[in-house]
Specification:
Blueprint (H helix, E strand, L loop, with lengths): L2 H9 L4 H47 L2 E4 L2 E4 L4 H5 L14 E12 L19 H4 L4 E4 L7 E3 L1 H4 L3 E6 L8 E5 L3 H7 L2 E8 L1
Parallel strand pairs: 3-7, 4-6
Antiparallel strand pairs: 1-2, 3-8, 4-7, 5-6, 5-8
Length: 198
């Protein structure tokens, strides 16, 4: 006697009608449980296709060159650039042009009567460095008032403005105004290239 016959006769004695109903119920359960598997598989395939399409779009966008804050960046090498494309502006950025560069003796001075005149805070062009309080003023006899210069070897990208003069004997010297006396003394005498900006 086979196992199924044994179960049918001894454990579950069913009539033919009951057996048909049981088979239908079991078939429905299998159909119901297996019905969701293809649907889930279809959904997984769709999700992977959407993800692959998204990666293609990002890859295509990353090949674009974008301007962010006036600086041209290759988005392929700067992932943050692709995120900032929408925030980028088309406002032109001022570019500083160097019109000349030459080597000069560089010294430092303070707003003291012993180093200037009887109005130590007022420069030769009438500018008040003490009220201004920023170390961006220089004295130079060979440059016009208002000329902008950089001294990259000593001060990096800081821009200085010619607002003062020195004794007439200093024809080739630049004197940088500093707030602190000790800082000016420690600066000493240096030789560096100054870049005159347009």
């Amino acid at each position: 006697m086979t196992l199924l016959q044994k179960i049918k006769e001894e454990i579950l004695p069913l009539s033919t009608k009951q057996t048909v109903i049981l088979v239908i119920i079991i078939a429905c359960l299998f159909q119901f449980s297996l019905f969701f598997a293809p649907a889930l598989a279809d959904e997984a395939v769709k999700n992977s296709e959407i993800q692959a399409e998204g990666q293609k779009i990002v890859a295509a966008e990353s090949q674009e060159i974008v301007a962010i804050d006036g600086v041209i960046k290759d988005a392929a090498f700067d992932p943050a650039a692709t995120l900032s494309v929408q925030a980028s502006s088309t406002v032109p950025v001022e570019t500083e042009k160097i019109i000349s560069a030459s080597r000069h003796i560089i010294t430092a001075y303070n707003s003291e009567v012993a180093q200037t005149d009887d109005s130590p805070c007022i420069t030769a062009n009438g500018f008040n460095v003490c009220e201004h309080g920023q170390e961006d003023t220089i004295a130079a006899n060979f440059l016009r008032f208002g000329t902008k210069v950089k001294i990259p070897e000593l001060f990096g990208d800081r821009v200085f403005v010619v607002r003062d003069r020195m004794a007439s004997r200093y024809t080739n010297r630049v004197d940088v105004w500093m707030k602190d006396y000790a800082e000016a003394v420690n600066f000493g005498v240096k030789v560096a290239t100054i870049q005159v900006m347009e």
